[in-house]
Amino acid sequence: MKIDRGLEVTRNIKIIEWLKTEMLNSIAALYDLMLKGASYTDEVIQDILANIIMVTYLLGRRLGFNFSDIDKKMREKIIIAINEEHKVEKWYNDLTKLKDHIKFRE
User: Fold this and answer.
1) Most buried residue among 29, 44, 68, 104 by CB atoms closer than 10 A?
2) How far is CA 28 from CA 18, 35, 47, 57, 105, in A?
3) Residue 98 contacts by C-beta under 8 Å, 6 or more apart in sequence?
4) Entry's Pfam families (predicted)?
């Protein structure tokens, strides 16, 4: 069965638009929960954060990047931020912890 190239491009554009909408909805939901304060649970926040990460990977894939390319770029950015003594690293060591977590995943 031959797939129409125009149909494939249209489907790709449609899914990219859906992923962008999903990303914005998840970010809005996270902001809304943070604004409301203590009325949310850890599980709800983890679900939203996981969705943002998942959608980011899927959007990157639809834009032509491999998941490993995104991971590589993230590792590079983490190293740069550590070397530049970003405040989140200086105050909490979060970037080093993230770097160690990603290294553990490999």
Assistant:
1) 29
2) 15, 10, 14, 19, 29
3) 78
4) MazG-like
DSSP letter for each residue of 20-45: HHHHHHHHHHHHHHHHH-TTS-HHHH
Q: Is 61 exposed, middle or buried (0-12, 13-18, 19+ CB in 10 A)?
A: middle
- Report the greatest alpha carbon distance in the chain: 58
Specify the pTM.
0.86
Nearest residue to 44 (alpha-carbon basis) of 58, 30, 31? 30
Which token pair is 62? 């639809």
